[in-house]
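Example protein as discussed:

>
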Amino acid sequence: MVQQEPDTAAGEGPRIRMARPGDAEALLAIYAPYVRDTAITFEWDVPTVEEFRQRIAHTLERYPYLVAESAGGRALGYAYAGPLKERKAYDWACELSIYVAQDAHGRGVGGALYATLERLLADMGVTNLNACIGYPAAPDDPYLTRASVEFHTHLGFEWVGRFHGCGYKFGRWYDMVWMEKVVGGHPANARPLRPVSQVAALLG
């Protein structure tokens, strides 16, 4: 059973803000157990704090990177966008990633992060949100559940593709599925994306 934090009132949602490179240590503490103990990420080795700091800074050059905090300022989770592909024609499509602290599940953190991320990306002009999700062959896999697919389905994402046995971790082969949500129109003359610095102000 997850205990409510003493500095977070019951029913109070998390505060969402833009991440900073200085958040690296706190966010890495959330991410590291996913690397060590699960196949939710296909990364094998926990990155260093400096590597993680550079990842945050690199993402913020072009996309939102969000942190969910408790009323007391503790990081409860984070979510960010990245390019679906690096070539110019993919500019209007993003790949999303999200990680929630192990003791913060079931408190609306993931939904709050994704709702804010979707709003900011749509305001930038992004049209397609994509999620790359590890998928176990059996529902009782000890390292990976189907919860992420269920989470994305609940938020309006649709299953659009599946790669079979493309990920290997913990001596097991894992499928990977793609899910997608269209959040904008596809005009004949697409405008360049707004800079992330302009939409960051929407967070208040």
In short: Confidence is low (pLDDT under 50) at residues 1-10. The helical segments are 24-37, 49-60, 109-124, 147-154, 196-199. The domain at 15-203 is CATH 3.40.630.30 (Aminopeptidase).
